[in-house]
Structures are given as C-alpha cells and as structure tokens.
Design a protein that fits this description.
Structural class: mainly beta
Order of helices and strands: EEEEEEEEEEEEEEEEEEEEEEEEEE
Oligomer: single chain
Number of helices: 0
Distance between the termini: 36 Å
Shape: elongated
Number of strands: 26
Helix content: under 10%
Radius of gyration: 21 Å
Length: 311
C-alpha cells in the first residue's frame, strides 16, 4: 500500500505524531532544497497536505513539537531541522505560524563541511510530561568500525530570559544517577587550579558562580581547551564558539567521555560539541582564570556505560 506517493526525488524523513487538540496524526516531511510540507491524517492512511514551509538554510530531518516554560507555564511550538536550526511559533493542527527569527541550537564548526557536529535530532512521544530528544553526533572517522554516536538525552523546554525566548536543552535528569565520587573546589582568585587527576573515568563538570565583567577562563580537559571570554561573552573550542548574553549568574555543565565533550551553557540555553582529541580519559582537568570572582566547581566521576566490541 502506498500511503503517500513520491513528491520529488529527494523527499524523505517523515516524522509522525498524534496531535491531541485536533485529533489527527501530523507528519512534517522534507521535500527538497529548503522546502518542507506538513500533512495530517485522521487514520494514518489517508493524508492531506495542509502547509508548504520554507526555511532558508534548513534541510532534512524535520520535527514539530511543543515546549513549555516550566516557570510560567507558557507553551510554544518548534519547527526543527537537521542542523539544529529552528523556529518558534504556534500550531493548530493544520498550519505552523512562525513567530521568531531562525535560531540555532548548536554551535557549528567554522567550516560547515567538517565533521564533529550534532545532526538529525529527533524527539520521543509519550515521555510523561517532558520532551526528550536525541541527536546523531557526526564525528570524524578515525579508522574505527563505526561512524558517529548518539548524544546524551536532553529535555527540551522554553525559556524567556535576557537572551529572549528560546529553546533550552537540559541533560536528562536520569544522568544524575550516574554520579559517583565528587571532587569539589572553590575558585576565588586568579591562578591555575587542578580540578581532577585522571582515573580514566567519564566525568561531569559543573561550574557555577557570578559572571565576571572581563578577562578569560580556560578549562582544559585531557588536553582539550575550552575558553570563556567574559568581555566578548563567548564560550569556544578552537574551531567553534557560541555567544551569550551577559548575565548576573553563569553556569556551565560539561560531560567528558572518551570520544566527545558535550557542553551545556547557561542551564542548556546553548550547546557545544567537541571531539575529545586525546581519545582518552588519561590526564587531568585544569582551570586557569585571571578573574577573582568566586566559582563553585564540582567534578563527578560517572558510572560508565558497558563497552560493546566491534563485530
């Protein structure tokens, strides 16, 4: 049975979900170029097109979902594309109305053709009052028997702060169950601190404190430097960066594993991915700062996921 005939040679990546308010199945579909269609069906067999949508620079792997501000209860819909570009808006079961500029969820490499980026993320249905998303981490092939891996699961929410309305990506709450031994340091003067010396364990690093007005802080994890430029409001690895709005309080949460470093800035308002160039958890974690602002830093060893050999 042909549910939906071919529209163009390139159309692909259907995402189907049940829209309770209008009592129908909804399917955003990639067409070609930067074009998408939205379809709806009462029975999952007979489909009608309700909208054509174009997002400049957006392609492949659409998703359409609702997010909620846990502080105010406000909700908005998100139209999402493979690279982490998205629009905020409203959806009535037929049409998605764009109510924001196109936004970026991920920090992309300076050269877009480079690997080492999150791609093709999709959300899950029926997740009991929260929205959970996984992405494919398109990592460089270093002679391994696989290409890429899945991201950490994140919970998506709406936030309305100094950066305006945007989607935030918070590590799924269950990840805290992986925490084992904690190493705590209070950073309160300009110097270099050793936060952790390697036991070859995956780590979660949590830094919280008042945002300095100027200067730089460099966090080096197993030879991988992450720089925070407080005057420019930038967080960067050597080949990618994000720019954030000035805040009174600042937080950064990092997961360091053998292959990747996943970084969540300002409670998930911004996300950076970087390859662990060392491909190892041997070594140490150090922080060098020229600021005298007080920081609380916790480094947690994490329970490791069982390794599966190549077959």
């Amino acid at each position: 049975m042909i549910i939906l005939p071919t529209i163009t040679a390139e159309n692909r990546d259907p995402k189907v979900f049940w829209h309770e308010e209008s009592q129908a199945y909804i399917m955003p579909l990639y067409i070609d170029g930067y074009k998408y269609h939205i379809y709806r069906s009462a029975d999952g067999i007979h489909w009608e097109k309700t909208q054509e949508l174009t997002g400049n620079g957006m392609w492949e792997c659409p998703d359409l979902f609702q997010i909620r501000d846990e502080k105010t209860g406000e909700t908005m819909w998100v139209f999402w594309a493979s690279q982490g570009y998205y629009y905020l808006g409203s959806f009535d079961g037929y049409h998605f109305e764009i109510k924001s500029e196109m936004m970026e969820a991920y920090a992309m490499p300076e050269r877009p053709e480079e690997q080492g980026r999150a791609y093709a993320a999709q959300t899950f249905s029926n997740t009991k009052g929260r929205l959970v998303q996984l992405a494919w981490l398109h990592m460089p092939d270093r002679g391994r028997c696989w290409n890429g891996q899945l991201s950490l699961p994140v919970e998506l929410e709406l936030s309305d702060g100094k950066q305006g309305k945007r989607m935030v990506m918070k590590p799924a709450r269950e990840l805290e169950n992986l925490r084992k031994q904690e190493t705590y340091r209070k950073i309160q003067k300009a110097e270099t601190y050793c936060l952790y010396e390697g036991e070859e364990k995956p780590l979660e690093i949590l830094m919280e404190g008042e945002m300095p007005k100027d200067g730089k802080t460099v966090l080096t994890m197993f030879g991988n430097p992450l720089t925070i430029d407080w005057e420019k409001c930038e967080v960067s690895f050597p080949d990618r960066k994000i720019t954030f709005c000035k805040q009174e309080q600042f937080s950064i949460r990092i997961y360091a594993d053998v292959e990747v470093l996943e970084v969540f800035v300002l409670d998930g308002s911004y996300y950076l991915l970087n390859e662990n160039k060392a491909r190892s958890l041997k070594g140490d974690v150090k922080i060098e700062t020229d600021s005298s602002d007080v920081w609380n830093v916790s480094v947690y060893e994490l329970e490791s996921v069982k390794k599966i050999p190549c077959i």
